[in-house]
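ingest -> fold -> write
write: protein_1
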Amino acid sequence: MTLAESAGRASPPTARVIAILDFLAQHPHDQFGLSELARRVGLSKPTCLGILSTLAESGYLIRDTQNKTYRLGPALISLGHIAQESMRVSPGAREELRRLCETFNATAALSGVVDDRITLLELVSPPGSPVTVRVGQSYPFAPPVGLMFVLWDDRAVRDWLAKEPTIPLRTDSERLDRVIAECRASGYLVERLTPGGRRLYAMMAGMSSTLPDELRALLGELISDIGERVYLPSDEPLARRADGTAADSRAVDVSVIAAPVFDHHQRQVMVVSLQIGRALADAEIARHAGGLCAAADVLTAQLGGSKPGG
């Protein structure tokens, strides 16, 4: 057996451990006994007990001796922090997200491309906000998903467009060129809130890069053109008052506002974003984007990075 063949083989025992940890991560506020856990993850009780005992001894799980139930343990906190640090997510990054969240009463997130998947690296939400995504959740990085991760680099755009799309696409080159030019000029991207957009990421969460044909077809009905959900002020001329001055009364349903974070090679390595989910006037978009870009500049500085051409 070659090394490549060995590396490509799955490990069923490891998969059983992951199944238990993933299940408990999906129910962070609950505790489960042996019988229920074994049933929910599809393992025999003896096999499940052996895994639970080992994980509890190592601190990855906590066993309630009175109720004989299990939940996630403190050793995972340390692992999570170390994993974040390895991806250059510092405590200072979380503080910037917290400031954004408090200023705009919106969820602030930091994401990056890890192993060819868009991965949520950090997240801060307003108190009481429903949890729809979690740190560590990932999505396939292929058209039409991921434009905001390549917008500021011509080569990155070409490489991304060359990937096999997750759904059948049509590409309006003129529209995409406008999106790239205007987003680079402003320093941020605004994504519209659409029925398709609301469903897209929820449907793709945890999916592999190869989607079933039926799902590809459904996603194709939701979104079929790269950049079509990007809002550009030039798309809709401002209304004018009687005296000829601009009357900026229009409102746009905004899903996300995103800005790039660069490393010391002036390459985009992350995206910081605000999850909006409501209508904003152009002036409000500009205010949110201004705070977001300032935070992106701080995160870039924390990495010792700089903007292209800076």
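write: protein_2
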Amino acid sequence: MLPAKLLKRPRAVISKDDRRWLTIAATLAERGRPSSAPNPAVGAVLVKDAIVIGRGWTQAGGRPHAEAMAFAQTGQSARGATLYVTLEPCAHHSERGPACADLAAEAGIKRLVVGVTDPDPRTAGSGMERLRAAGVEIALANDPACGMSLAGYLCRTRYGRPHITLKLAMSLDGAIATASGQSQWITGDLARAHTHRERARADAILVGGATLRSDTPQLNVRLPGLEDHSPERWVLSSHPTPDGWHQLPAVEELGRMAPHQYLFVEGGSSAAASFLRADLVDRLLIYRAPILIGGGKSAIADYGLDDLASAHNIWSLSARRQLGRDTLEVYDRTPCSPE
């Protein structure tokens, strides 16, 4: 919920151009994921007379912030400009750098358009209020693109857990392996490359204990130029873990994964069922190969669904694309969307 002081104010008009600039800021924010951790990956665009005069995204380790990067490019030309930022400018002071709300006020911007208000109680509306007091026109968009770009931070701040993507690579009939256990390879090269791209966008990657013991997966990123973006490896298991792995004894103990913001769950069927049973999956990536296996191992084990009606209206198809002969379907749900 928005702070009461913001709820009482009339909402500023958000134009199509505002939405467009916010979408650009959200795209820039992707460059900071996940290297900005533990800070959120924020994007910012400074616009004056319909021209971009500065842009920024949260840098590795969390500093400089997106706004600071954008203002560093503009100098005095920022006076009278509009700042588009995916997340409300921070209002708290830090030894690592100044508050972005203060930077924006000192720069003399005319207007601030915010994609999502910051749920961090140290800011939570105070960043916008500080700039309004400085004479800046404020517009809060509650923009879906900005919310999605901040999904990990919003989940971590609001719910104390990372945003969770469940990846499934399966045949047309929903199998992830043959009855004998053979699973390499169901999907082709392009689908596997896309999986590595998704790994590079996560702080942590997880498999179940049975998958670790049977497959000994590397779970690293093997795309040229992104090898150093391999996420931290976790296993869902109560058994002792090998060197180089972190243990999650149960999905209810996701607090152990702080401060990670994005978790990529890659297998197997029991691990998938555990997260679904606990209603913890925010996003599904389904890579579907044009093959039939018949009698193979199911992608998802039984997770306790008793009433078919309760399975409906949970997932929304947000993207579909061809990856060679394979098809990728992306489904989202909305527990971490802006409020």
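write: annotation protein_2
The chain has ten helices and 15 strands.
The domain at 16-153 is CATH 3.40.140.10 (Cytidine Deaminase; domain 2).
pipeline exit 0
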